[in-house]
Amino acid sequence: MIKKDEEEDTPFTPVTVPLDSEGTYCQSFTVDQPEEIESFFWKYGFVVVRDVLNAEEIQQTSNEIFGVARVDPKKPESWINVNWDKVYGASYNAKKGFLGNTVAFTPAAWNNRQNPNIYKAFSIIFKQKDLWVKLDRFGFMRPTRQLIDGDKTVDHRDWETSRNWVHWDQNPWIEPEFCRIQAIIAITDHTATSGGFHCIPGFTHHWKTFAKENRDRSSWDCLVNFPECDIKANNTTKIFMRKGSILMWDSRTPHGNYPNESNGFRIVQYTGMFPVPYYEPNFSQILASRKADMEQLFKYSTTGPIKLTPLGKKRVGY
Description:
The chain is built from ten helices and 15 strands. By secondary structure, the protein is α+β, with helices and mostly antiparallel strands. It has one domain (34-316): Jelly Rolls, CATH 2.60.120.620.
């Protein structure tokens, strides 16, 4: 079952995220290193597990994401002057880097949700095997520098996603304990200029203290913006990772995206898993509702044949 914090909540103590042997990317692990994955996650509030997707799976996911966006990354004329709000589904999505308003429902997206490596990574943190998969979107950041527009080269700084966006998807005043794990699957490399995930490492150990010291900020919102303060200014850290990796973070970790300042696309698949809620007194109704929702999704899929493996059926709730 889920590991509980082993220490009392403490004042915030800055931590430095270790890099790999190359000194470029965040230290990462394989699914065959469960103790290392678990230890890193509970210390820093996140962990990167590498090589969960192979080259073919990365390419297939990339092709489908660009297909959903109706963009050919090799042909700027196919996208540089399109109606981007229509591509993203809303101007809010464009500023945050979310592609569309609905579930990522393509064959590759489903293959990733039922990928044994990704399932194993979540199982290591949750310390259990009965997990259901969450249904999330694709992340899609446009290039913003040195773009070819006809016969000239242009920058599009107005295409950058929000700067300094740090938030929680868990309310510290409503949900004081560990609740969930969020995740992104990197389909492109995350570098200093590519755009990508950033967070305040180690903040989970200060979670309850923050809530007590900031009662005047309390709200009922599910999404809570982290306040402007020295902790945010001095400790928000870009997490560099290779494509094919999954980054899983504790929802108590303040996090967000840093903008793309390169001439390439940054793309990811958001995902997550959570323990099957057997303990709920109305579990039979929850299970029936989930099955019905899934059947509706699969019934109206127009993106290609979705084939669930035995592992995938369990993650869905069939």
